[in-house]
Design goal:
This protein has 13 helices and 23 strands. It is α+β, with helices and mostly antiparallel strands. It starts with 20 loop residues before the first helix and ends in a 6-residue tail after the last helix. The structure holds adenosine-5'-triphosphate (ATP) and magnesium ion.
Length: 433
């Protein structure tokens, strides 16, 4: 992709309306534009990252045996009245009337709709377990939408729902999702910390929150430092769930079960939440199956959410410096920035074109900065948008057959020949696209 024909409207100044760094950087890097409070348009660079995150989430869901469906954003109020949540949800729910005066709503979540789909088709224990997911926009009329896409009103969520015959089987489904979540966040280069979460009204329920570590995160986490050491190949959910971990208000220094040496305190951002809630919705919405004795029983359910659009901001909170974003390779909008500092110089243009063609023909996604603008703007824009590798082509170096290869993650720059730069880039193992 050529920068000059693409659409990345970068901004030099920090936008006044953005309080936190990820929001500032997303606006400055031309990733999003606010449409109204808590509602955003995704510009090309932002959309590319959103899609990469969505791809990793989907892939791990599929690998864990979940099945993708797509439910609508607009739902009828009927099922919500049945489940008793139409009143309970309060002002966070956006309610709409259609032209015939029917009560509709913009879905804040999908327990009701999925339970209705399930009960329409599945009537025997032989068809269990089932785990259905979708990736769809949600709307919650948050009291205070803020921090850009981190707390929006309209946001993209992956949510899935498990259906099992017994509580015991439900725990297996729960742990499968727990493991899939850890893998998902590790693939994005993040460090996930799982915490036992408050479960609400029904006793015996089980819930975990997934936070990712970021110095600028909103929550303070207190946890066993071994929770950070996770090998994606040998994830053991029972073991991870046995570690001590608590958020700010729930940590009690006096009664902490682990030693000071073992306790770590870091900042985090919530990106996922999983929940086992038994037969709460299946009973209200008639999701019964026959068990092996022919008896009708309500299915046990769990629900599992990942904030896909929130993750775009959360990843920036975890990976940035004072110049801009530093994308982990698996979610980067492009892998390589090819920066021609002297577009009017014949040798620079020739070398840039050769490299652009070679990189384009590989598995790498390259952004060729061929814009007619100052060297300063080119360099600062590229640091701002945070593509992991930069190849910088300048007139003086090129006379000695040299280009600069910069690694944006650690800002190290090497002066090497164009051939060496190409070989280095083409040898990178990029597993996630
Ligand atoms: P919070 O406590 O942050 O409001 P929640 O408990 O309401 O979160 P869930 O209903 O469990 O969130 O939703 C699952 C995931 O969806 C959350 O972990 C988060 O990543 C994401 N999410 C929830 N609300 C928002 C929002 N307003 N904007 C962006 N993402 C959100
Ligand atoms: Mg909420």
């Amino acid at each position: 992709m050529k920068f000059s024909s693409f659409f990345i409207p970068t901004l030099k100044n920090i936008p006044a309306e953005a309080e936190i760094i990820s929001h500032q950087l997303m606006i400055r890097a031309g990733m999003i534009k606010q449409a109204s409070a808590g509602i955003y348009s995704w510009l090309p660079l932002g959309l590319k990252v959103l899609k990469k995150i969505e791809h990793i989430v989907r892939d791990e869901q599929n690998k864990a045996g979940a099945i993708e469906v797509l439910m609508p954003t607009i739902q009828s109020a009927d099922l919500w009245i049945k489940s008793g949540r139409y009143e309970d949800y309060g002002k966070e729910m956006l309610r709409i009337q259609d032209r015939s005066g029917r009560e509709m709503l913009y879905g804040p979540t999908n327990e009701e709709l999925i339970t209705d789909i399930f009960q329409s088709y599945i009537t025997s224990y032989k068809d269990l377990p089932k785990n259905l997911y979708h990736i769809q926009w949600k709307f919650r009329d948050e009291v205070r939408p803020r921090f850009g896409v981190m707390r929006g009103r309209e946001f993209l969520m992956k949510d899935n729902y498990s259906f099992d015959l017994t509580e015991e089987d439900s725990k297996i489904s729960y742990n499968k999702m727990f493991t899939a979540y850890i893998k998902t966040f590790l693939r994005m280069g993040l460090t996930p910390i799982s915490l036992r979460a408050e479960t609400g009204s029904i006793g015996g329920n089980l819930s975990h929150e997934f936070q990712i570590l970021a110095k600028t995160g909103e929550s303070t986490l207190y946890y066993d430092k071994d929770l950070e050491k996770i090998d994606p190949e040998t994830i053991n959910p029972d073991k991870l769930q046995s570690y001590y971990a608590a958020v700010d208000g729930l940590h009690d220094e006096k009664n902490c079960p682990i030693s000071k040496e073992q306790l770590k305190i870091s900042k985090g951002i919530e990106v996922g939440h999983i929940f086992y809630f038994g037969t709460k919705y299946s009973e209200k919405l008639s999701a019964f199956v026959q068990n092996n004795k022919g008896k009708k029983t309500a299915v046990h359910m769990g629900s599992y959410g990942i904030g896909i659009s929130r993750l775009v901001g959360a990843i920036i909170e975890a990976f940035h410096d004072d110049k801009g974003i530093k994308w982990p390779i698996s979610v980067a909008p492009f892998h390589v920035s090819l920066i021609n500092l002297m577009i009017d110089d014949k040798a620079c243009a020739k070398m840039s074109n050769i490299m652009y063609e070679k990189i384009s023909n590989s598995k790498l996604d390259v952004l060729y900065d061929d814009r007619d603008c100052s060297i300063g703007k080119k360099l600062s824009d590229n640091d701002l948008i945070g593509i992991p590798y930069q190849v910088i082509i300048g007139k003086r170096d090129l006379k000695d057959n040299i280009v600069q290869l910069k690694n944006r993650l650690n800002n190290e720059t090497k002066k090497i020949s164009p051939e060496e730069a190409l070989n280095f880039l083409l040898e990178q193992t990029l597993t996630d696209f």
